[in-house]
Write a structure and sequence with these properties.
heterodimer, B: mainly alpha, 6 strands, about 75% helix, globular
C-alpha cells in the first residue's frame, strides 16, 4: 500500500490540489447567499483533500 | 494561546521530528487549524467560507510565480543553457578562492534569482567537485552563497508570499528587506572565502568579496526600489557576474585544467533566455501603453465584515488585485515561450522537448503547490478566527521591546523546519505583523527581519541539505554538512537580529 501511494504521489497530489482550490469558488457564492449546509459540504471537500495528502509517504 | 499555537507546532513537529514532507505536514496543520477554529475560537461557516476564498486568492498570487518560474527554468535547462554557463565560468580563473566567489557565490545567487527550488546547490556543487574542491566545501559554499538571494529569488515568490500574507504594499516592505539581505550578502562573501580557504583566503580575497557583495547588494536595493522586486536578486547577481570577468584577471591563479570551454556563440545563446527575461520585464512593466493594456483584466473580490461567536472581527476588505496578464508570473510565461523559440531556432532541443519541459514542470511543482495551498489556508483561518491575534498578544507580552531581536529567529525557525522562505512567510508573516502592531514597532522592519532570517536559514533546512549533499557525493553525511552550515547560518541570523534591533532603535516605530 505504502509503495503504491508513493508511486502514485503525483496523481494523489493533483487530486488533493484540485479538492483544495476548486470548492472555494462555489463557497464564495454560498456564503453570499447564506447557504450554510452547502458551505459545510464544500469545507468538507477541502478537508478531505488535506486528509488525502496525509497518506502520501 | 496554547490552542492557537497548535497548528504551527503540528507543522514544525511533523517536519522536524517525524521528517514529514511539507505537503503532508501542511495538510495536518490545516486540519488542526480548522478544528481548533471551529471548536475553540467560534469560527462559523460564513467566516470559514470567506477565509477559504481569501486563501484561494493568496495561493493564486504566489503559485502563478512559482509555476512560471519553474517553467522558465525547465525551458532554459532543457536547452542545456545552465550547463553551458556552468562550463564557461571555471575558465575565468584557476584561483580556488576566486572560483568559490564567482561560481559558488555569484553564480549560485544568479541561479537562485531565476530558479531556486534547490537548483543553486544541485548545479554548483558538482561543478566545484569537478574543479577539485573537497565534497564538503563544494556543498557548503553554494549553500551559504545563495542565502541572501532567496527572498527576491525564484523570481520573487517568497517576497510575493510575504506581500500576500500581510497585505502590506511592496513599496514599504521591499527596501528594508533588500537592505538587510544586502548587508548579509557582504558577510556571505567573506564566509564563502572562509569556507574555501580559511582565514588566509578571507584576507587575500577581502577586496573582491566586498566589491562583488556591494554590487549585488546595491543593485538589488535599487531594483527593488524601482518596483521590479521579482527580478531584483537576478539583476543584482547578473551585474556581479559581469563584474567578475574583469575582476578575475587580477586573481588568475596558476594554469590548470578547467574542462571543456564552450564557444562564444554557445554562451551567447545560453544567456539569451535571461536577456529575454530582462527585455520582457521592462517591456511589460515600464512602457505605459503596454502596462495599461495588459492590466485591464484584474481579479479582485470584495469581502464583507465577518466575526467569530467570541466577538473577534475581521473588517470588510477587498482581496489582493491580481492583474492576470501583467502579473510577474505572466511576464515569466511570455519569457518562457519566447526563449523556447530562440533556443529551438538555435537547435538546442532534442525531439520531445515540449513534453519533457511541461511534464517536468508539473511533476516538480505539484507537491509544493499542495503544501502552499494548505499552509496559506491554515494561516488565513488562524488570522480570521483570531488565533494569530491571540498568539501575537502572547508574544508581545512575553518578549516586549526585544521583539525585533526575536523576529528573525521566528522566521528562520519557520524556514529551517519547512525548508522554504515562502512557507515561513506564509505561516509567520501575519503573526509578525500583528505583534509589531501591538508593540507599536515598524511593521516593514519586523517583516524584513522575518523574511531575511527565513531566507538565510532556509539554506540549512534538512530538505535542502539532503538534495545538496546527494549531488556532491555526500549522501549519508548530511549531518556533517548541517553542522558546518549551522555555524555560518547562526552568525547570519544573529546579524539580522542586530540590524533589526538597530533599525527600530534608530526610529523604526509606527
Amino acid at each position: 500500500m505504502k509503495t503504491w501511494l508513493k508511486k502514485h504521489s503525483f496523481q494523489i497530489h493533483t487530486i488533493a490540489f484540485l479538492m483544495m482550490i476548486l470548492p472555494a469558488i462555489p463557497m464564495f457564492y454560498a456564503a453570499k447567499s447564506g447557504n450554510d449546509p452547502f458551505i459545510l459540504v464544500l469545507i468538507g471537500l477541502v478537508a478531505l483533500g488535506n486528509i488525502l495528502v496525509l497518506f502520501v509517504p | 494561546m496554547i490552542l492557537a499555537l497548535i497548528p504551527i507546532a503540528v507543522i514544525l513537529v511533523l517536519m522536524i521530528g517525524f521528517r514529514w514532507g511539507a505537503a503532508r505536514a501542511g495538510g495536518a496543520g490545516y486540519l488542526s487549524a480548522l478544528v481548533i477554529a471551529i471548536l475553540f475560537f467560534g469560527a462559523g461557516s460564513e467566516l470559514l467560507a470567506y477565509a477559504h476564498v481569501r486563501a484561494l486568492f493568496l495561493s493564486l498570487d504566489v503559485l502563478l510565480i512559482i509555476w512560471a518560474a519553474f517553467l522558465l527554468y525547465r525551458v532554459v535547462d532543457e536547452a542545456g543553457a545552465i550547463q553551458t554557463i556552468g562550463q564557461a565560468l571555471p575558465h575565468l580563473t584557476t584561483d580556488k578562492g576566486m572560483q568559490a566567489l564567482i561560481i559558488g557565490w555569484v553564480f549560485a545567487s544568479f541561479l537562485q534569482g531565476v530558479g531556486g527550488f534547490g537548483v543553486p546547490v544541485a548545479v554548483v556543487a558538482p561543478i566545484l567537485v569537478g574543479l577539485g574542491f573537497p565534497a564538503l566545501a563544494a556543498v557548503i559554499i553554494p549553500s551559504i552563497g545563495h542565502g541572501w538571494a532567496v527572498t527576491f529569488g525564484s523570481l520573487g515568490s517568497s517576497f510575493q508570499a510575504l506581500l500576500s500574507s500581510t497585505g502590506q504594499p511592496e513599496s514599504l516592505l521591499g527596501p528594508p528587506a533588500a537592505l538587510f539581505l544586502g548587508i548579509s550578502a557582504l558577510a556571505i562573501g567573506l564566509m564563502v572565502a572562509h569556507a574555501a580557504g580559511g582565514w588566509a583566503a578571507v584576507k587575500r580575497l577581502l577586496i573582491p568579496a566586498l566589491l562583488l557583495g556591494l554590487i549585488m547588494a546595491f543593485v538589488q536595493y535599487i531594483v527593488v526600489g524601482l518596483g521590479f522586486w521579482f527580478i531584483a536578486s537576478f539583476i543584482g547577481s547578473t551585474v556581479a557576474l559581469a563584474a567578475s570577468f574583469p575582476l578575475a584577471r587580477y586573481y588568475k591563479g596558476k594554469d590548470g585544467n578547467n574542462g571543456k570551454r564552450p564557444t562564444q556563440k554557445a554562451l551567447l545563446v545560453a544567456l539569451s533566455g535571461y536577456a529575454i527575461l530582462i527585455v520582457i520585464t521592462l517591456f511589460v512593466q515600464v512602457i505605459p501603453p503596454v502596462r495599461d493594456w495588459l492590466g485591464q483584466v484584474i481579479l479582485r473580490v470584495q469581502f464583507p465584515e465577518v466575526s467569530t461567536s467570541l466577538g473577534f472581527i475581521t473588517a470588510a476588505s477587498s482581496s489582493r488585485s491580481i492583474p492576470i496578464f501583467r502579473h510577474a508570473g505572466a511576464s515569466l510565461t511570455y519569457t518562457s515561450i519566447l526563449a523556447y523559440f530562440v533556443y529551438k531556432a538555435n537547435g538546442c532541443y532534442r525531439p520531445g522537448s515540449v513534453r519533457r519541459i511541461l511534464s517536468g514542470m508539473i511533476k516538480r511543482v505539484m507537491g509544493s503547490s499542495v503544501s502552499i495551498v494548505s499552509m496559506i489556508a491554515m494561516a488565513v483561518i488562524m488570522e480570521n478566527a483570531g488565533m494569530t491575534d491571540t498568539l501575537a498578544r502572547g508574544l508581545a507580552g512575553g518578549v516586549g521591546s526585544l521583539f525585533p531581536i526575536v523576529a528573525p529567529w521566528i522566521g528562520s525557525i519557520g524556514a529551517f523546519m519547512t525548508g522554504s522562505n515562502t512557507n515561513s512567510n506564509v505561516v509567520f508573516g501575519a503573526l509578525q505583523m500583528r505583534t509589531a502592531q501591538l508593540l507599536g514597532l515598524s511593521v516593514p522592519i519586523v517583516l524584513a527581519a522575518q523574511t531575511a532570517g527565513a531566507a538565510l536559514a532556509s539554506v540549512s533546512a534538512p530538505a535542502k541539505v539532503v538534495v545538496g549533499a546527494s549531488t556532491a557525493g555526500m549522501a549519508g553525511k548530511e549531518g556533517d554538512v548541517m553542522r558546518k552550515l549551522a555555524a555560518y547560518t547562526l552568525l547570519l541570523v544573529l546579524l539580522i537580529s542586530l540590524l533589526a534591533f538597530l533599525a527600530v532603535w534608530l526610529g523604526g516605530r509606527s
